[in-house]
Amino acid sequence: MVEPAGRTLPDHVDPRHVVHFDPVTSAEITAFPPAAFDALRRPHPVFYSPLYGGFWVMTRYEDIAEAFKDDAHFGQWSAGIPPVPYAHAQIPLGLDRPEHTPWRRLLMPFFTPGRAKLLEPVLRVVARDKVASFVERGECEIYADYAIPLAAAAFGIQMGMSADLFPALKSLAHDVAYGSAKVANERGVAEASAFRRAATDKLDAILSDIVPQRRRNPGNDLVSALIEARLEVAEGESRPLTDAEITGACELLFRAGTDSTASMISYCFLHLAANPEQRAQILAGPHEQLRAVNELMRYNSFHLVPRVVRSDVRVGEVTMKKDDLVILATGAAGRDPEEFDGAGSVDLHRARNQHLAFGAGVHRCLGAHQARVEIVVAVEEFHRLIPGYGLDVETPISYVAATSKARPNAVPLVLAHSSVAAAG
């Protein structure tokens, strides 16, 4: 990676707590991102990496959960690590309280459990159609053939958008997240910032055309609702949203909702393909399906959530100073044996499972209910039609990292002949 020569450690960093960890290319990330911190946790509950200007990493559930909830000490840092700035504010993800509160209050009604359940029947139809599109050829790649189309369908229903827009949106969203991390690693943060800005501008240009269309022809969708919404700016005072704010919110919802959900679906199938004995539980009933999906989410959590220290704070044996950057790794939290018995293995019957795959505190994932419904539908409908499958052993699994997450490049499956017959 590109790193200025001669960099020294900050005075408050003890060399004993230093690990040269790269969230883009470290061997731990390229091997299996959710398990990246398993070997580091015991010797380094909290460590400092001097790469990309320097940042801390927490590896224990207790510390990570507390930091998620402590937004007084750990503020939002939406640029990610590597620290590549976005072209504009990430609303509401990049806001702290009190600015964050009215935005959260405005958007929450669109992401309730009830709203998520309304999507379920349509998503089941989409899932079955996608399975039908590849079942005859006896193979599929889960992310591209199944997971992304399902997540994109959910987004399209919410926004009232044509499916024709999704290929361009998906490609640009990939550039914003994964492409910018690759450029930062190879050519430095300055070039990555320019790369991210160019991709974001193109993404905004597509989404911004939708706002005037909805002003002329409103519908029963989120964009139309945001046009009519008013943002509280003071007690008893509110204002309408600007077109730029609506576009920015839609862009963030697309990037955060589609890829992250599709990535978790990919991780789920990666595990289930290698563990056929656990597939039967997927069809054991709604309660067991939800429990199984929650466990797969715990085991496969993959976000490297960035925060910035707002004021000096002590975590374990280290002191973090104001303006230090911090990674809260949901995978490290989910696989901490002090919090979960048998943390390194999957127990689809696990009863107590307070994982942090969706974060915690005031910034807990806005679309958590919807994402969970999408993942349950994806897993259940696939297994209803294709109970037998395995990984394509001729295609090695590799991973790609963004500035705040990492996912499989591809999960290629070979569908058993009996599976094709069953689906037919």
UniProtKB/TrEMBL annotation:
Matches recorded under InterPro entries: Cyt_P450, Cyt_P450_B, Cyt_P450_CS, Cyt_P450_sf
One Pfam match: p450
Organism: Pseudonocardia ailaonensis
Family assignment from sequence similarity: Belongs to the cytochrome P450 family.
Protein name: Cytochrome P450
Keyword Zinc: no
Record keyword Iron present: yes
PANTHER family per record: P450, PUTATIVE (EUROFUNG)-RELATED
Lineage: Bacteria, Bacillati, Actinomycetota, Actinomycetes, Pseudonocardiales
Range of residues in the leader sequence: none
Annotated keywords: Heme, Iron, Metal-binding, Monooxygenase, Oxidoreductase
